[in-house]
Specification:
The chain has 209 residues and is of the alpha+beta class. Helices cover 32% and strands 30% of the residues. The protein has a four-stranded mixed β-sheet with strand order 1-6-5-4. Strands 8-9-7-10 form a four-stranded antiparallel β-sheet. A hairpin with a 2-residue loop joins β2 and β3. The model has no long low-confidence stretch (mean pLDDT 90). This is CBS domain containing protein.
Length: 209
């Protein structure tokens, strides 16, 4: 899966001289949490709803309404946006986007192609992809196994699943040279798939569905 498969294309953006109040209104209207900041065709920053709200005067301020309106009218996105921007290319694997968001502790990334902004990818998009990969909407039975971390172990376990159909497989390294493998199976014979795996010598840890 590539970033382009899960990103929001042609994202709404603002310019650096957009007033903060206008940017906040735009976020509210579209139910977004972040906006790329474009200077012409160039991506120069990104601003989030938190950035914008943090820039607003405190409710405890002693400024008059006139003074507040004057200050807010002058406050622009340029003064609160984050820069430089962490971006990702549209044709990079989705897991690269997840890793970047984790490393930089950000909730979204502008997506570029040939130096041009073409989309935005967020944590929500990654979670949607995660649930799709694990086949959560496919129903069936979810089985967790512990298998040896050696070549052929996954194929051996999968061989005990038919006549049921494997719709998703996920593995993660575990202690003691083992792997945890999660299978989601559907179709014929799902009620007996755990028994078939045990009969094949597999260590079945959990069965749900």
């Amino acid at each position: 899966m590539l970033v382009r498969d899960w990103m929001t294309p042609n994202p709404v953006s603002v310019s650096p001289d957009t007033p903060v109040l206008d940017a906040l209104k735009l976020l509210k209207e579209h139910s977004f949490r972040r906006l790329p900041v474009m200077d012409g065709q160039n991506l120069v920053g990104i601003v989030t709803d938190k950035d914008l709200k943090d820039a607003m005067p405190s409710k405890a301020t002693t400024l008059s309404v006139w003074e507040l309106n004057y200050l807010l009218a002058k406050l622009t996105v340029h003064e609160v946006m984050a820069k430089p921007v962490i971006t990702i290319e549209a044709d990079q694997p989705l897991e690269d986007a997840a890793l970047l968001m984790q490393e930089y502790k950000v909730g979204g990334l502008p997506v570029t192609e040939g130096g041009q902004l073409v989309g935005i990818i967020t944590v929500t998009d990654v979670l949607k992809a995660f649930t799709e990969v694990l086949g959560l909407r496919s129903g069936g039975v979810r089985i967790t196994l512990e298998i040896p971390d050696v070549p052929g172990a996954l194929a051996k376990a999968a061989g005990a699943v038919p006549p049921s159909n494997i719709v998703s497989v996920a593995t993660v390294a575990h202690a003691g040279g083992k792997q945890r493998m999660v299978l989601r199976v559907t179709g014929e014979g799902t009620a007996g798939v755990a028994d078939r795996l045990r009969a094949a010598g597999e260590n079945v840890l959990d069965v749900r569905g």
